[in-house]
Write a structure and sequence with these properties.
Helix content is about 0%, strand content about 60%. The protein is globular. It contains no helices and eight strands.
Length: about 110
């Protein structure tokens, strides 16, 4: 499957956070997240393993009890069912892969 860049298809998941599913297969889904400065991703968990890469911006990411200052080029992995949260310090863009496919991101 191929997916080509478009400027449409973004949806707001939380105030200041928009997402777009880019491509998915049988086991994984890749999504782009646009995060506005000052927004927060509240502490939450889901059964999906989540691997991410910060393309641009700056944020503080907390995974369980560990916190890290995330800058462009940094990456992370969040096991399924582990609580995580983020504070966005600059307008940012992240790419994340979820396994298994997040059905709620296909809507």
């Amino acid at each position: 499957m191929f997916s080509h860049h478009t400027k449409t298809g973004y949806r707001e998941s939380l105030p200041g956070i928009t997402q777009k599913s880019l491509v998915f297969g049988t086991n994984t889904l890749m999504a782009e997240f646009r995060l506005e400065k000052g927004s927060t991703l509240p502490r939450h968990s889901h059964p999906h393993e989540q691997t991410g890469y910060l393309v641009s911006g700056h944020m503080t990411l907390r995974i369980h009890d560990e916190e890290s200052d995330i800058r462009p080029g940094d990456s992370w992995n969040i096991p399924g069912n582990v609580e995580h949260s983020a504070v966005i310090h600059e307008d940012s863009m992240a790419i994340e892969v979820f396994c298994p496919v997040r059905e709620d991101y296909l809507e």
